[in-house]
Amino acid sequence: MKMRLVLAGAAVAASLGLCAATVPAAAAPAGGPLKLRVRCGDTADLVRAVRKANDRADGATITLAARCAYRFTGPYRDSGAALPPVTGKVTLAGDHSTLIRSVEDERFRLLDVRRRAQLVLQGVTVTGGDVRGDGGGIRTAGTLRLEHSTVAGNRAGGNGGGIANLGGSVALSDSAVRTNTASGPRERGDQGRDEHGGDGRDEDRGDGPGEDEGRGEDGPEDGADQGGPDAGADDGGADDGEAARALAGGGPAGGGGVYNDPAGTVTLFRTTVAGNTAERDGGGILNRGSLLVRNSRLEHNEARTGHGGGLDNHGTASVNGTVLSENWAGHDGGGARNAGRSVLETGGSDFLRNRAGRDGGGVSNAGRATLEQAKVLANQAGRDGGGLSNRVSPGDGVAELRVKHSEVRDNRAAGRGGGVDNRFGTTAELTRTRVSGNLPTNCAGPVAGCSAH
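The structure assignment produced for this chain is given below.
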C-alpha cells in the first residue's frame, strides 16, 4: 500500500512538473494581474498569453525576451491580426523586442485593440504589417499606449500606415513612428474588402486553421476563442468601413504614420514621426479628431499627391515645442495643412525647410490657426506662400491666421508672398513678428503687422 501511495504521489508530481514546463509563467495571486513570460520566438506561447490576459478581469503583463524577434507567418485564426484581438487589459513588456510579419502572400496587421480594451507596449517594435484596410501595424478602437516603442515599416491600403485610431485613445511617449505607408488600393479587387475577403470588419470568428505556430493554435484545451464577452463578435471591433468607402471610390488613403478619426484622441510626447508616406493627405499624421503633440519631431514625411506633409489637420490640434522639418506635400502645407473649419494652435514650434507643390511651404491654413513663438524658416512653395499661406475654400467658413512673437525668414514662393500670402476675405495678423529675407516679397495681400512688402 505504501509503495502504491509513493508511486501515485510521484505520478502527480511528474504531471504537475510537465504542466509547469508548458506554461510560460505562473499566475499572480488571485485577484491580481497575471505576470507571464514568453520564450524568445515562441509565438504560440505569446498567443496563449494574450488569450489568458483577455480572459482575466485584471489582465496581464507579458514579458518578451530581450532583443528577440517574434515572427508571424499568418494571422490569428481569421482576425486579420497576428495576435488575438485585445479585449481585456494587456501589457507587452519588451527590451528591444520585435513583433514582425514574415510572409509574402498573406496580409495582416500585428495588433488589433477592441473597444473598452487596453494595450500597453513597452520597449516593443511593431513592423511588417500589411493590410488593405486601416492600420497596417496597429488598429485600435480602445486604449493604446506606447512607451519607448517603435512602429515601423508597415503598410495600409486604407488610413494609418502605422497606427489607425478609430474612436479610441492613443498615447505615445519616447517612441517612434517611422517609414510606414498609407498607399491606397494596389490592385483591382482590393476595394472594400479586408485581408480575408470579409466586409472590412475583421471579425474574430475563431474558426481558422491550426497548423501554423503564428496562428496561435495551442491544442484542444483552448478550443474556441476565450477573448471575453466580445469574442466571436465584432461589437468591440474597429471598423474598416471608412477606408472601404474611400477605396471603393478609387481614392488613395491618408495618415502615413498615424491616422486619428473624428471620435479619436491622440497624444504624442517626446516622439518622432519620420519617413512616413501617404499617397494623399497627412504624410506623418492625418488628424480628424483631437491631437496633442509636445516636444516631438515630425520630419521627412511626404503626402505625395495631397496636403500636409508632416501634419494634415481636420480637427483640433495643439502642437507645442515640436519641430516640423523637411516634410513635403504635393499640394498644400509642406509642414502642416490646417483644413477649413479646423483649429491649429502651436507654441514654441519650428517649421523648417518644408516644401509644398502648391501653397504654404511651412503652413497652409484654411481654418483658424495661431502660431506663437514659432520659427518659419527656409520653406518653399511651388505657387504662393513660401512660409505661410492663408486662404479659404468655398464653403469652408472663415480663414484666420494669427502669428505672435515669431520669425518668418528666408522662405521662397514661385508665385506671391514668399513669407506670408493672405487672400482677400481672410484675416492674417502678425504681432511682434519679424518677417525678412523672403522671396519674391515678404508678404502679399492684406497682412496686418507686416512692415516690408
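Interim note for the steering committee: The mean pLDDT is 84. The chain has three helices and 43 strands.
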